[in-house]
Amino acid sequence: MTKKSELLEAIAGKNRGLLASEIDNVRVLSAIQQLEDRNPTPRPLEAKDLLEGNWRLLYTTSREILGIDRFPLLNLGQIYQCIRTAEAKLYNIAEIVGLPFLEGLVTVSANFEPVSESRVSVKFERSIVGLQRFFSYQSPEKFIKDIETGKKFLPLDFSLANRERQGWLEITYLDEDMRIGRGNQGNVFVLAKEKNNV
Question: Which residue has the higher pLDDT, 185 or 151?
Answer without folding.
Answer: 185
